């Protein structure tokens, strides 16, 4: 299993106490996009966690699994990318204050717990967010939250 723990801040902090968490699932699809998520997380000062398939692929270590048999997180902002939303995983996200979920499946269970639901190709969103954040400097959590809410408003995100 390839380890990233010392390569990125987003994998070396504590997801339980993090203000921002990015939870990834199988919808990420390939290793290149996993690496892009790590870059995005560092820009957004977020911790990366994931569902069981991310561990099975070797992309995340066991201490990054969120859900019934893993961590229970309660960040101010939780951005889920490509997460289908099995009950085993979502149980670990329920403490989040704000959940923004991106999935290309309109019927994905993750939308049942999300505050903002974006039905879109997660890879398109990741690429676009990287472009939009490449020159940004966020001073604090409020700047990041404001940016994310403004960004996702263009997708007319709301409960499905």
Name a few traits of the molecule.
single chain, 160 residues, alpha/beta, Rossmann fold, five-stranded parallel beta sheet, 5 helices, disordered N terminus
Helix/strand order, N-terminal first: EHEHEHEEHH
What gap, in angstroms, lies between the N and C termini? 37 Å
CATH architecture identity:
3-Layer(aba) Sandwich
Query: Which CATH top level class fits?
Result: Alpha Beta
Major beta sheet summary: 5 strands, parallel
Helix run count: 5
Would you kindly provide a brief summary of this structure?
The chain has 160 residues and is an alpha/beta fold. It has helices at residues 31-43, 52-56, 87-90, 122-133, 141-153; strands at 20-24, 47-50, 77-81, 98-103, 116-119.
Write the layout of secondary structure elements.
Elements: E1 20-24, H1 31-43, E2 47-50, H2 52-56, E3 77-81, H3 87-90, E4 98-103, E5 116-119, H4 122-133, H5 141-153
Parallel strand pairs: 1-2, 1-3, 3-4, 4-5
Helix pairs in contact: 1-4
Question: Care to describe what's here?
Answer:
This is Electron transfer flavoprotein subunit alpha/FixB family protein. With 160 residues, this protein is α/β, with parallel strands linked by helices. It has one domain (9-153): TPP-binding domain (Rossmann fold, 3-Layer(aba) Sandwich). It is 29% helix and 15% strand. It contains five helices and five strands, in the order βαβαβαββαα. Strands 2-1-3-4-5 form a five-stranded parallel beta sheet. The longest helix has 13 residues, at 31-43. The protein is globular, with a radius of gyration of 14 Å. The termini are far apart.
């Amino acid at each position: 299993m390839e380890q990233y723990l010392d390569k990125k801040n987003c994998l070396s902090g504590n997801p339980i106490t993090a203000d921002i968490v990015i939870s990834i699932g199988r919808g990420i699809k390939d290793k290149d996009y996993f690496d892009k998520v790590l870059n995005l997380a560092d820009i957004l000062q977020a911790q990366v966690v994931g569902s069981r398939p991310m561990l099975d692929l070797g992309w995340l270590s066991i201490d990054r699994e969120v859900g019934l048999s893993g961590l229970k997180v309660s960040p101010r902002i939780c951005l889920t990318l490509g997460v289908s939303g099995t009950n085993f995983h979502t149980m670990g996200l329920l403490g989040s204050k704000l959940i923004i979920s991106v999935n290309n499946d309109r019927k994905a269970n993750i939308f049942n717990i999300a505050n903002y639901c974006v039905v879109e190709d997660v890879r398109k969103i990741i690429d676009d967010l990287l472009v939009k954040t490449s020159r940004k400097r966020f001073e604090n959590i409020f700047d990041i939250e404001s940016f994310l809410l403004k960004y996702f408003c263009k997708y007319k995100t709301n409960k499905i």
